[in-house]
TrEMBL record, chain A:
<keyword id="KW-0732">Signal</keyword>
<dbReference type="GO" id="GO:0045047">
    <property type="term" value="P:protein targeting to ER"/>
</dbReference>
<keyword id="KW-0735">Signal-anchor</keyword>
<feature type="signal peptide">
    <location>
        <begin position="1"/>
        <end position="28"/>
    </location>
</feature>
<dbReference type="GO" id="GO:0006465">
    <property type="term" value="P:signal peptide processing"/>
</dbReference>
<keyword id="KW-1133">Transmembrane helix</keyword>
<keyword id="KW-0812">Transmembrane</keyword>
Automatic annotation (TrEMBL), chain B:
<keyword id="KW-0472">Membrane</keyword>
<comment type="similarity">
    <text>Belongs to the peptidase S26B family.</text>
</comment>
<protein>
    <recommendedName>
        <fullName>Signal peptidase complex catalytic subunit SEC11</fullName>
        <ecNumber>3.4.21.89</ecNumber>
    </recommendedName>
</protein>
<comment type="function">
    <text>Catalytic component of the signal peptidase complex (SPC) which catalyzes the cleavage of N-terminal signal sequences from nascent proteins as they are translocated into the lumen of the endoplasmic reticulum. Specifically cleaves N-terminal signal peptides that contain a hydrophobic alpha-helix (h-region) shorter than 18-20 amino acids.</text>
</comment>
<dbReference type="GO" id="GO:0005787">
    <property type="term" value="C:signal peptidase complex"/>
</dbReference>
<dbReference type="Pfam" id="PF00717">
    <property type="entry name" value="Peptidase_S24"/>
</dbReference>
<dbReference type="GO" id="GO:0004252">
    <property type="term" value="F:serine-type endopeptidase activity"/>
</dbReference>
UniProtKB/TrEMBL annotation, chain C:
<dbReference type="Pfam" id="PF06645">
    <property type="entry name" value="SPC12"/>
</dbReference>
<dbReference type="GO" id="GO:0006465">
    <property type="term" value="P:signal peptide processing"/>
</dbReference>
<feature type="transmembrane region" description="Helical">
    <location>
        <begin position="38"/>
        <end position="59"/>
    </location>
</feature>
<dbReference type="InterPro" id="IPR009542">
    <property type="entry name" value="Spc1/SPCS1"/>
</dbReference>
<dbReference type="GO" id="GO:0045047">
    <property type="term" value="P:protein targeting to ER"/>
</dbReference>
<keyword id="KW-0472">Membrane</keyword>
<feature type="region of interest" description="Disordered">
    <location>
        <begin position="73"/>
        <end position="97"/>
    </location>
</feature>
């Protein structure tokens, strides 16, 4: 503390440590935040269902989604990445998760999502087991903070059954 | 006399024993940094517990210069997670989000497809020729924590090595001349 | 900066920084605004640096009272002679060669 240089260094070091501590505290508070998400989704139409040349089943479908994700936002939230997956079990795989739609929500004002999703990403299986398959739609979210730990969550939505035959 | 003058003066008045003490304290700083890094490796189970984001493919979530803390647990990988993976024949690891998971019935092996949030298409173009899926051995860790901007230090230092040497020199000088 | 000044500067630096960090966190949490927290904290850090880094006269109110040069002449420091005879039977003699 005898010269201004050492004092400046000491101040800068202490300030940086405290800044990290403040960010950690903000992130720790997020862990106690209990969100209440409300969401519904329904498949409205199977647009196309066929077998690709490489032998995999491919479905393009339309579904309506209404989700209120406002409660996910806290003061330490930079953005929420929300997406809907189709999840199902086949003889080959114990779990298949395929993203059908995703969206980056940068702000709480845009967290009330009402969309008609017309096949943003197709549902492609590993193999040919989609005919007559029961598929679960699941809403996932991934909260990305200004600083600190990232939080994931999910919520099962509706189920639907694919037709027994290809459409083309 | 200013700050620099003080430092010069303190170098001039040093003795052998003092020089040796300072060298040891310099060594302590280097080794303790190493210990912290290796300790983190053990705690997180990932060979590089902290990575710096180098590209804008995950914007606006992660920008160039942000740092991510990785963790490598035994939990199965699921969609939505942000993983760091290494492609055979590529040196720089990539940080992207998992969008598809197919987990085998008996062996529990997984096929994973990734995509950058800011990219239009999935990552098959980035993978090795003919590679369709990532397997577990490609994954270096999953991102669990985030701090903005801190990684700029390393980006600047790798791109402008002069700054690195200046910084190391200045720090070394400071350690050697400090009297504790 | 004198000894008392250095001590109070360090003390003041830590108290001010912790106080501004706590204040910034509370303000940020109350207003639910992360950026506001960073701004308040940055303000606190600049203020701390302004108060504790420069050598203000405030830190120089306890100068050391050195002995007068004349006073020192009147009480000379005891001289250590290197001659073995005057140091008596102490074992230091071996080292004085």
């Amino acid at each position: 503390m005898h010269s201004w240089g050492t004092r400046l260094l000491a101040a800068a070091t202490t300030a940086a440590v405290l800044l990290v501590a403040a960010c950690a505290a903000a992130s720790a508070l997020d862990a106690f935040h209990v969100p209440s998400v409300e969401a519904q989704a329904h498949v409205t139409k199977i647009n196309r269902f066929h077998k690709q040349i490489n032998g995999n089943d491919k479905v393009t479908l339309t579904f309506s989604l209404s989700a209120n994700l406002e409660s996910l936002f806290t003061w330490n939230t930079k953005q929420v990445f929300a997406f809907v997956t189709a999840e199902y079990e086949t003889a080959k795989n114990s779990l298949n998760q395929v993203s059908l739609w995703d969206n980056i929500i940068p702000d709480k004002d845009q967290a009330n999502v009402q969309v008609e999703v017309k096949s943003k990403y197709p549902l492609i299986d590993q193999g040919t087991s989609l005919r007559g398959k029961k598929v679960q739609l699941v809403l996932h979210w991934h909260i990305m903070p200004n600083a600190g730990a990232m939080i994931r969550g999910k919520m099962p939505l509706s189920e639907f059954t694919l037709p027994d035959t290809y459409t083309s | 006399m200013g700050f620099i003058g003080d430092q010069v003066e303190s170098i001039r008045s040093m003795q052998v024993r003092q020089v040796l003490t300072q060298i040891i304290s310099l060594g302590m700083i280097v080794t303790s940094a190493l210990i912290i890094w290796k300790g983190l490796m053990v705690a997180t189970g990932s060979e590089s517990p902290v990575v710096v984001v180098l590209s804008g493919s995950m914007e606006p979530g992660f920008k160039r210069g942000d740092i991510l803390f990785l963790h490598m647990s035994q939990d199965p990988i699921r969609t939505g997670e942000i993983v760091v993976f290494n492609i055979d024949g590529r040196e720089i690891p990539i940080v992207h989000r998992v969008i598809k998971v197919h987990e085998r019935q008996e062996s529990g092996e997984v096929d994973i497809l990734t995509k950058g949030d800011n990219n239009f298409g999935d990552d098959r173009l980035l993978y090795a020729q003919g590679q369709l899926w990532l397997q577990k051995h490609h994954i270096m860790g999953r991102a669990v924590g985030y701090l903005p901007y801190v990684g700029w230090v390393t980006i600047v230092m790798t791109e402008k090595p002069i700054i690195k040497y200046l910084l190391i020199g200045a720090l070394g000088l400071l350690v050697i001349t400090s009297k504790e | 900066m004198d000894w008392q000044g250095q001590k109070s500067a360090e003390m003041l630096m830590q108290v001010l920084l912790v106080a501004s960090a706590v204040a910034a966190f509370l303000v940020g949490y109350a207003m639910a605004d992360f950026q506001l927290m960073l701004l308040v904290y940055a303000g606190g850090v600049v203020l701390t640096a302004l108060v504790t880094v420069p050598n203000w006269p405030f830190f120089n109110r306890h100068p050391l009272k050195w002995l007068d040069a004349a006073e020192a002449d009147r009480h000379p420091r005891p001289q250590i002679s290197s001659a073995p005879a005057t140091t008596g039977g102490k074992k230091k003699t071996g080292k004085n060669k």
